[in-house]
Write a structure and sequence with these properties.
alpha/beta, binds zinc ion, 19 helices, Rossmann fold, six-stranded parallel β-sheet, two-stranded antiparallel sheet, 2 domains
């Protein structure tokens, strides 16, 4: 199930020639056995394996056996996050190693983000060896990090190779692979947000990239029960779909095709400003954000169809809300910096009104909360606030605050321009 990446770099009807920096993607049993030859072909002689104690057991050890001369960094998985501490721990060990010329990320999302961040900083290529089908960011060009407590996206590098060994990732705990499915399902609102932003502001969009994401969704939505059962074939298909989604991001150079209101909610919870610590996987939070966003979008659509709304001329940043929600000065500073340009300033009420039919069409493409909940349940994935340890009262504050986590225009952010007859949150 290898992916021919040259397909994606062809000239596109959107006018862009999409850049793809990953040179090869291998998804198969025993894929890691290709590593010695692949590294040899790329002229890399001093690989360094970056993993944590769990992924060392699952795959790092086997990779080391195949590359006996390689350097090895094994991080303590306890409280390991893609943040300044995780990066510092890895760099400290890396500095002690002799002139590495390629980094091997052997792990799931966190290990990949730490590796791609360091690879970018040091101008090194990196190879992705995913140990679970847990996120769609393996081939992403950006690193999703928490920096000084704030969720931030840093420019980084995409792997030159993905060596996804299904003997390894199909044995990952089900919760991790279910979380990958949840991350993928989040594309429903992410794509709707992109299309709506395009309809309202003319923001660049590529239909081919959108189609790639829908293809990825189709692959997994036809195999819900198999994903829950966790067979190797279903896990391979899930990995394939996650990598397609990652390529979609790589094609546009940012996470627009894969991240919208649902991801902003997940990022907000990770910042722990309106809630306590949420110790759940990325995808688990995304699917809860997805179900919440879908409900809000469908209720808004209903009100719009009934004509039960007015549109404001202008909506400045809600400074009272931001100042009371982010009492930490540094964090508030980061949020205000992110929102230096308020994306709502680019919207004229008349253009928004004219785009309403397009907005409604895009919302109709999002499955309803009930449909999403059923799909998530069949795949054995989480779906409600309670399942990630948050009270139901978190719903409205999350909807109000999360759009500020990123200045990216979503329909959730646009809702601030609407006044509805009935409360939609
Ligand atoms: Zn295109
Ligand atoms: Zn994600």
């Amino acid at each position: 199930m290898n992916i021919d990446v040259s397909e994606f770099a062809k000239p596109c009807p959107c006018g862009h020639t999409h850049e793809i920096s990953v040179c090869g993607i291998y998804i198969e049993p025993g894929a890691i056995r290709r590593l010695p030859a692949l590294l040899d072909q790329s002229g890399c002689q001093n690989p360094v394996i970056l993993c944590d104690e769990n992924t060392y057991e699952a795959a790092g050890k086997a990779v080391r056996d195949l590359l006996p001369g390689s350097g090895l960094i094994v991080l303590n998985p306890e409280n390991l996050h893609a943040n300044e501490h995780g990066v510092a721990m890895a760099e400290e060990q890396l500095d002690a190693l002799h002139t590495p010329d390629v980094l091997l990320a052997v792990g799931s999302g966190t290990i990949h983000d730490i590796t791609r961040f360091i690879a970018h900083k040091r101008g090194l290529p990196f190879v992705s060896v995913p140990t679970a089908a847990s996120v769609d960011g393996f081939v992403s060009t950006v690193a999703a990090m928490t920096w000084n407590g704030c969720k931030k996206t840093f420019p980084a590098v995409a792997p030159v190779l993905v060596v996804a060994d299904s003997d390894i990732f199909s044995r990952a705990p089900h919760r991790l692979n279910a979380s990958g499915f949840s991350d993928l399902l989040g594309k429903y609102t992410a794509l709707a947000d992109w299309k709506i932003a395009h309809a309202v502001t003319g923001e660049y969009i590529c239909d081919r990239v959108c189609q790639l994401e829908y293809d990825a969704l189709k692959v997994v939505c036809q195999r819900l029960d198999a994903i829950r059962e966790g067979g190797r074939e279903a896990c391979e298909e899930l990995m394939y779909a996650l990598l397609l989604s990652g390529l979609a991001m790589q094609m546009v150079g940012n996470s627009r095709p894969a991240s919208g209101a649902e991801h902003h909610m997940s990022h907000l919870w990770e910042m722990e400003v309106i809630n306590g610590h949420v110790n759940y996987y990325h995808g688990e939070k995304v699917s809860v954000g997805l179900v919440l966003s879908s409900g809000i979008y469908h209720r808004a659509a209903e009100e719009i169809r009934r004509g039960a709304f007015t549109i404001r001329d202008h909506m400045p940043l809600e400074m009272d809300l931001l100042e009371s929600s982010f009492p930490d000065k540094a964090m508030l500073g980061e949020i205000l910096d992110e929102n230096r340009v308020n994306p709502l300033d680019a919207i004229q009420p008349d253009t928004l009104r004219a785009a309403l039919p397009d907005i409604l069409r895009s919302i109709e493409e999002i499955p309803t909360p009930q449909e999403l909940t059923d799909m998530l349940a069949r795949a054995g994935a989480g779906k409600s606030l309670a399942e990630i340890g948050l009270p139901d009262s978190m719903r409205a504050p999350t909807a109000r605050l999360s759009p500020y986590v990123r200045a990216r225009l979503t329909f959730m952010r646009m809702l601030k321009l609407f006044s509805f007859e009935h409360d939609i949150l």
